[in-house]
């Protein structure tokens, strides 16, 4: 297998299909003028935006509301040296509409951490990129 055969770019539709099956991703944002990365549970909404659920006391809320962020999720198998990675770049906004918040409270992401009065954040899927690495184990 050549190096070019081992790697391929994914189209937007395939990226979103893969993203929909990942339970955890990482939001990439700026905190005190430095890059920050936070693993978080998420899901995709019907409009294919990324939805996050977090604590109202979270520093994340203050850092990302109204700001362009990146969100990345992936799946890799070290044994076969294969997997995929998807990055969504877009504006993050706190969901403030009461009806929308109510809808997403039932259908949106769950959190592995217990949260009271959770805040929901939407990341628009402005730019969606991805790549797949096919197994190269033993192909030297």
Automatic annotation (TrEMBL):
Source species taxonomy: Bacteria, Bacillati, Actinomycetota, Actinomycetes, Kitasatosporales
What protein name applies here?
Answer: Pyridoxamine 5'-phosphate oxidase family protein
| UniProt-listed InterPro entries | Pyridox_Oxase-rel, Split_barrel_FMN-bd
Q: Which Pfam families match?
A: Pyridox_ox_2
